[in-house]
């Protein structure tokens, strides 16, 4: 599983690199082109006559294009005024409203998921994370203490006992496992030259793990040796073996959670949609995404050229509406 996490990390980092090279530049260019064509359409529509329905569709398209562009490009004052014209909202006020909504959503998530309350107003542009962490920690400790006040069930007591056994074993296992393996692997006591070399190599690994206080590595080395030398397995106490098994199960659970969280890491948010794909397929799909953006950019560039140089402005505008307008009703039924 550790190898799986390492491989998955390598895959996501490679996808991130591809995204920055083959996709992100085209997304930025798309934002710039959308703003450019919005200004152009806003100017050209005064020279032609559109039906009421066409005007409504064009209004919707221009606002959608501006909203899309603002997600990657900071608008100029001129573009902010254009946004106000079609949205009826001041750009800064709308941005503030969206930020407030995000704070409210974050606060609601904390309460729903963990029962923790936080005042959204403290999530300023430069929030005091130490203060927020301290407040959340205080609430969490209070919740845990309230849990502790309740009488414990037999199952909870048994679980606590097992945890205590595991903790005690962890405290003494690093040294005890090292000593036990050192006795077994000491090369000076081995007359067989081939086995002596094997023990020397294994002992080097054991020493490194011991110096790094890496209990899981010591356990893996011990199990590796036991697997190849069955006589050592029969000498291990069953109680110790059971706790070792539990430790390994815990490690698997932790690694499984680490793998899950890896895909949720904000660093990889741009390529999250491709993270479930295989190492060979994901890069191809990401490159295809870049190709699609390039094609869309060329289409808008062509539309801009038509609007600027063609004498058939009416045709160019109506074709633009036909190409890009999506009926909300169709989207709704598609999602269903």
Provide a compact summary of the structure.
By secondary structure, the protein is mainly alpha-helical.
Walk me through the structure:
The chain has 336 residues and is mainly alpha-helical. Helix content is 76%, strand content 0%. The chain is built from 13 helices and no strands. The longest helix is centred in the middle third of the chain and has 32 residues, at 154-185. The protein is elongated, with a radius of gyration of 31 Å.
Fold blueprint:
Elements: H1 2-22, H2 24-44, H3 52-70, H4 77-87, H5 91-114, H6 129-148, H7 154-185, H8 193-211, H9 215-228, H10 238-264, H11 281-309, H12 313-324, H13 328-335
Count the DSSP helices.
13
Radius of gyration, in Å, reads 31 Å
Based on secondary structure, the structural category is: mainly alpha
Q: Tell me the overall shape.
A: elongated
| Estimated helix fraction | over 70%
Distance between the termini: 37 Å
